[in-house]
Amino acid sequence: MSKIKARLDITAEVPILVNPRLCDQCGACVGICPADCINLDEYTLSINGPDCIKCGFCIPACPVEALTWNEGDTIQTNGVIARNGTGSAGR
Questions:
Q1: pLDDT tens digits, residue range 58-81?
Q2: What angle do CA 58, 77, 81 make, to 5 degrees?
Q3: Which residues neighbour 19 within 8 Å (Cβ) at sequence distance 6 or greater?
Q4: Cα(20)–Cα(6) distance, rounded to whole angstroms?
Q5: pLDDT per residue over 28-44, tens digit each?
Q6: Other CB atoms within 10 A of residue 51 CB
Q7: In a 10 Å sphere around its CB, with 0-12 CB exposed, 13-18 middle and 19+ buried, how is residue 47 labelled?
């Protein structure tokens, strides 16, 4: 059974979140993205939400599990993922 499952039900502007505490900027997700919407520069990895086709290929490609579906999560200004805006640490 495949680990990859498209999530067309995700309606967030950025369908996939990057946890900056986990991401080691290896680029595995960049190479597998068919929409070419993942950007990696010297310091950060970001996803261009409007270009994302919600295929989910990048999530299992990440060896450190830094990518997750955005199911109502938000990213605070300090870069820590908070669940539903509660301010508690994310996944």
A1: 999 999 999 999 887 555 434 444
A2: 45
A3: 66, 67, 68, 81, 90, 91
A4: 23
A5: 999 999 999 999 988 88
A6: 12
A7: buried
Tokens of 82: 């908070």
Termini Cα distance of the chain = 24
Q: What does the pLDDT read at residue 14?
A: 81
3-state secondary structure the chain: CCCCCCCCCCCCCCCEEECCCCCCCCCHHHHHCCCCCEEECCCCEEECHHHCCCCCCHHHHCCCCCEEECCCCEECCCCCEEHHHCCCECC
Query: Under CATH, to which class is 16-85 assigned?
Result: alpha beta
Ordered by start, the domain boundaries in the chain are: 16-85
| The pair of three-digit structure tokens given for residue 34, joined into one six-digit string | 């068919």
Scanning the structure block, which residue is given the tokens 């820590």?
A: 80
